[in-house]
Amino acid sequence: VAATLASSAFAEYPEKPVTLVVPFAAGGPTDKVARDLAEALRKPLGGQAIVIENVGGAGGTLGATKVAKAAPDGYTLLLHHIGMATSPALYRTLQYKTLEDFEYLGLVNEVPMTLIGKTTLPAANYAELSKWLEANKGKINLANAGLGSASHLCGLLFQQSLKIDMTTVPYKGTAPAMTDLLGGQVDIMCDQTTNTTSQIESGKVKAFAVTTTKRLTTPALGKLPTLDESGLKGFNVSIWHGLYAPKGTPKPVLDKINAALKLALKDPEFDKREEALGAVIINDARVNPADHKKFVEAEINKWGPVIKAAGQYAD
Ligand code: MLT
What family does the entry list (predicted)? Predict the structure, then answer.
């Protein structure tokens, strides 16, 4: 009886707009997938509005902390990414426990990254870029979205592969970082194709390579070589995004959100928008909470040692 009462108590959920926290600045890749997803979730969640709240800073950990501490009522959710798996190794005073303070809903997508540069860089391809990097050691500015961001992880691996230390310039997201790259204030950046495709197509940035082991199939990026084939053997980074709620959110609410997510991931409009920018929509077991959580735990164990070996701490 209690279970029935409980589920009926939430039969009307959601009865008011749901806040979806994006832990990076508006206009970046995390914001992009959140807004596309919010659009696709609306109908399956009974038409309620899903309001995006951008809470940037500290490589995504401020936004994640806000949701970890929010009321577990289903009205505050988090759209986050691989930073869930790298932040535990980067922050010694993280304000939340990744595997204990969140309810895991489904994994949403995976997005490749591109290595891009300011148009005034005297390099027309990756080979010329690596020569320029070699010749300008100590003077290279690499933009990212803070320690814990996807751009940070990719940039860290890139520096390790080249054995070249670069000055990293952190932003509250790769949207503001892109503004400075377009202005030539920074030299290069590793960023997700959802944010770089239009800039590359319009020639406002130079594109040198993609970070996945297979070349992409989108028209704009299909001709880019992979870093792996360009000499950085085994370089392989793609950025997953997932949906989270505060620990303790009632199961009937979680079930409703997860059911709505599965419908949203099958929404042709959502798939078309995302795939046009190189994203791959998840349609395997990781759309289920338990498998999603297992996947993130494996990612924490995969990236933790890499991050620790770099000896970079954010605090
Ligand atoms: C990242 O580098 O983590 C993201 O691109 C940040 C963002 O979404 O702006």
Answer: Belongs to the UPF0065 (bug) family.
Q: Which amino acid, 191? A: D
Percent of the chain with pLDDT strictly greater than 90: 93
Over the stretch 75-98, which tens digit does the pLDDT of each residue have? 999 999 999 999 999 999 999 999
In the block, which residue shows the tokens 């890499």? 306
The secondary structure element, H or E, covering residue 107 is strand 102-117
Q: What is the model's pTM? A: 0.96
Whether ligand 1 lies within 6 angstroms of the CB of 192 is answered as yes
Whether 237 lines ligand 1, by a CB cut-off of 6 Å, is no
Residues 73, 59: Cα–Cα separation, whole Å:
26
Q: What residue has token string 């000055």?
A: 167
Q: Tell me 58's DSSP state.
A: G
Give the type of residue at 201: E
Neighbours of 72 (CB within 10 A): 17
**Residue 145, ligand 1, Cβ within 6 A:** yes
Rounded to 5°, angle at Cα 56 from 55 and 58 = 125
Q: Which stretches of the chain score pLDDT less than 50?
A: none
